[in-house]
Write a structure and sequence with these properties.
Immunoglobulin-like; mainly beta
Length: about 210
Amino acid sequence: MLTGGSAITMNNWIDKVDAIIDVWYAGEQGGNAIADVLFGDYNPAGRLPITFPLHEAQLPLVYNHKPTGRGDDYNNLSGLPLFPFGFGLSYTTFQYSNIKLSKPSIKVNDTTQVSCVVENTGSVAGSEVVQLYIRDMLATVSQPVMALKGFDKIYLQPGESKEVVFKITSSMLQMLNDQMQIVTEPGNFRVMIGASSRDIRLKETLEVSVE
């Protein structure tokens, strides 16, 4: 069990334990909450708000880095994280399907919606945190490989499914250009829905054009 407020490395001991519970700063009811999770009375649904590295030599390590042209491998370790941003386990499993854009092509000041269906495919009830990421595919200024733009926590019984809908606004597609102006540039945007920044389940392409 980990108690703390930041990422740590675990190379020296992670292979010697069966599970890891990161409780952050749990507060005065933390013991009861941890007991509920350990005894199966509560299905955990927390997700990491930061990236956990394999080794401190990887730092800074963030999910929304700029494209650099280099690969993900160092000379002596992987460039991949130990646990990625948005990661978290559950006692059940979830399946994502049927991604749709209500309008696959919009003007720069228009809005659209992206939706998908999430189903609890396990044997116990639980919550899933459905995460929306967007990437500007070709911009005049280098942009992150992905950026979290929304999330929705849904509770599902075994076998139950639910449609999750995110509204995509012009402000979610904005960037600072080389004149330090906030703009929405025309072009293609990759719309991604998943269970973490490294577990993208569905993708679509949104086309944005000038007015």
